[in-house]
């Protein structure tokens, strides 16, 4: 787990501190966008790099221009529907590609 200056921690000095992990949705279409009119070649057994997947946000970073990024873990699915996924760990993801799941918004957490 990548600990950043903006990583939030819970716990205390007596029982130990641990990083707070927040459930997020990662928009793969925003994260891995293609320029318009880019030629493509379909690979049916390749990774599905569009859609939205669940992830875990455990760090935050800010760049020199003030933009925010999340440090996330998430799984990339295959396009052919197989159960196996590729686990991406400690990925730096722009905040524009992250959102809070609707069930967390409804619960107010």
From TrEMBL:
Domain of life: Bacteria
The protein, known as: Uncharacterized protein
């Amino acid at each position: 787990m990548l600990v950043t200056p903006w990583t939030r921690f819970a716990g205390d000095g007596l029982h130990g501190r641990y990083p707070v992990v927040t459930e997020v949705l990662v928009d793969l279409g925003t994260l891995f966008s293609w320029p318009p009119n880019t030629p493509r070649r379909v690979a049916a057994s390749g990774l599905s790099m569009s859609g939205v997947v669940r992830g875990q946000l455990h760090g935050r970073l800010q760049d020199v221009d003030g933009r925010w990024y999340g440090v996330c873990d998430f799984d990339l699915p295959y396009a052919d529907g197989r159960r196996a996924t590729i686990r991406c760990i400690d990925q730096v993801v722009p905040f524009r590609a992250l959102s809070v799941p609707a069930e967390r918004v409804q619960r107010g957490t």
